[in-house]
Amino acid sequence: MYLFKTKNDLNAFLETYKKEGKKIGFVPTMGALHDGHLALVTKARIECDLVVASIFVNPTQFNDPKDFEKYPVTIDQDILKLESAWTDVLFLPSVSEMYPEGINAPHQVYDFGYLETVLEGAYRPGHFQGVGMIVHKLLDLVQPTRLYMGQKDFQQCMIIRKLLEITGMPTELVVVPTKREPNGLAMSSRNMRLSPEEKALSIALYNGLNEIKQNFNQQPISELTMLVSNNLQSIGFQVDYVSIVNSETFEVLDEKIDGKMVGLIAAKIGEIRLIDNMYLN
Ligand code: PAF
């Protein structure tokens, strides 16, 4: 696996692949890699000629500075994992390489519209602008044919789809289903920070989504979401939301619709905020 730390070096390497029209698959990450990330690499490996991954803990997308400071960093293990999944290139830039203008410099504001005002957008102000900024920079650099992202970050995937629309970039977004632990807990880099007790309790998010799915035809949305929210609170979670959205528009629903719907949960146990989602029909 080639490892590049500067945009110039990565650019020089990618030039011939781009000129020859090779299919480049790109997997952007913030490191602390788990099997969910490797599933993205594996899909890219199957579908593309060249697989590029990046590891960059992006400071501009953390609305909570403590979350940024404590974000797990496991570079040595990450490199071994990427190599074992046959990644061709790892881009590992510094903050000054990605933000030579400084992280607080004025930047382009993306009009993500309604998407940025609800759920994660409402609970993490500025988060999606930071995600947009870094993914835009990375896409400009790598110019991938396909971009691979995990369904666990459902709203982020919709934001990136919108970013591609806004910027007119020809990259195709590929959303890969969430990888789960054997007990159902969605894999996440933040799981590393859960105590064994918190980890055991955290399957409640998956169980809650399953409960909504199983009772979806029998009960109204408000009852289902309230029930799951109360269950989570009763075992010690601080619940940000339990919501159901239209999977195409991301409109938060009070009433069921004919189209596809997704249940989403965000809740905090101790210091760790977890998210999960599931298609309901
Ligand atoms: O999902 C993530 O890990 C990050 O938000 C991303 C897409 C790598 C941007 O920093």
From TrEMBL:
GO terms for cellular component: cytosol. One of its GO terms (biological process) is pantothenate biosynthetic process. Its EC number is 6.3.2.1. One of its GO terms (molecular function) is ATP binding. Its main location: cytoplasm. (R)-pantoate binds at Q61, Q156. It comes from the Bacteria. Keywords: ATP-binding, Cytoplasm, Ligase, Nucleotide-binding, Pantothenate biosynthesis. ATP binds at residues 30-37, 150-153, 187-190. Pfam families: Pantoate_ligase. It catalyses: (R)-pantoate + beta-alanine + ATP = (R)-pantothenate + AMP + diphosphate + H(+). It is found in: Cytoplasm. CDD domains: PanC. Beta-alanine binds at Q61. Pathway: Cofactor biosynthesis; (R)-pantothenate biosynthesis; (R)-pantothenate from (R)-pantoate and beta-alanine: step 1/1. The active site is at H37 (proton donor). InterPro entries: Pantoate_ligase, Pantoate_ligase_C, Rossmann-like_a/b/a_fold. The keyword Ligase applies. Homodimer. HAMAP family: PanC (MF_00158). Catalyzes the condensation of pantoate with beta-alanine in an ATP-dependent reaction via a pantoyl-adenylate intermediate. Belongs to the pantothenate synthetase family. PANTHER family: CYTIDYLATE KINASE/PANTOATE-BETA-ALANINE LIGASE, PANTOATE--BETA-ALANINE LIGASE. The reaction proceeds by a bi uni uni bi ping pong mechanism. This is Pantothenate synthetase. It comes from Chitinophaga caeni. The gene is panC.
